[in-house]
Amino acid sequence: xxxxxxxxxxxQLPVRSRFSTRLPDFIALMKPRVMxxxxxxxxxxxxxxxxRLDPLPGSMxxxxxxxxxxxxxxxxxxxxxDIDALMARTARRPIPRGEVSRAEALVFGLILACSxxxxxxxxxxxxxxxxxxxxxxxxxxYTMWLKRQTPQNIVIxxxxxxxxxxxxxxxxxxxxxxxPFILFFIIFLWTPPHFWALxxxxxxxxxxxxxxxxxxxxxxxxxxRQILIYSMLxxxxxxxxxxxxxxxLLFGTVAVICGAILVALAFQxxxxxxxxxxxxxxLFAFSIIHLFxxxxxxxxxxxGNRWSSMLLPHAESSLTSSSHRAGLLGDVRxxxxxxxxx
Length: 342
Hints:
The protein has helices spanning 8-29, 32-48, 55-79, 81-84, 94-97, 102-123, 125-149, 153-162, 164-173, 178-201, 203-208, 214-218, 220-237, 240-243, 249-271, 277-335. It folds into two domains: 24-176, Tetracycline Repressor, domain 2; 177-307.
């Protein structure tokens, strides 16, 4: 019998090909869009915090927060695989499609979560503890318990999604302050209108999956009323950063305009009694823009202030130098000397 030796590269090709084929599925498990928003709000919390964070610890913190957010998404999909298979919106996720097994998702999520906390602990132990609590709260308290038990699941569970700016702030300063909790409160109030608007368009699916979302339990009219209440509460709360002095005119303008649009969309949705699917979709889509615009304005305003504060000493130094030279020339003129005689 003749044995033909195959090159090592040919033996490795199927493994590499399988890995590259499955990689998008594992990335999808991390809920990249949700992860991106969490990382962005954490980054803003980190940047606006007083003081300066060295690039290496800052990069480690952002990487860890991204991994932690991704881990929460993976473990959420692992737990919700039975629900996801019953809903059209989630049936194409990797686990229901059979591309990733529940066991693989669990191992991947746990490794990702532990790695994220360990990496962040190298930069700041308090921030790492907050990240661990956030992952636990989202996976255990919200996904395993609240989501399947109460129509207030989104309200209480929204605390997990509101913590990233607090984690970013603590990663930068090592301390907890009032400012990041104001940002926490903004996201906390933003979460119910955002998700309830989505649930209005998928109420029949949630009902089939036996998930007690508010439209399923209380009806569409009660849901639109709650969306309107939270949207109206969010508008004045969004102005607190300006009132407390850690945000400026740009943020205040964006907060008023976006907040007013959200309230108007909530009024419109309430007027339809929740039966207009497009109205719910408009509010859902705009709510994403709303939150991103708020934190982008906060970031731009803070960077602008820091840039101005860096330029101001140079301008004052130049002005002082010019005044000194002018004073010296004046003394020369008063003494009767010419410049050539000095």
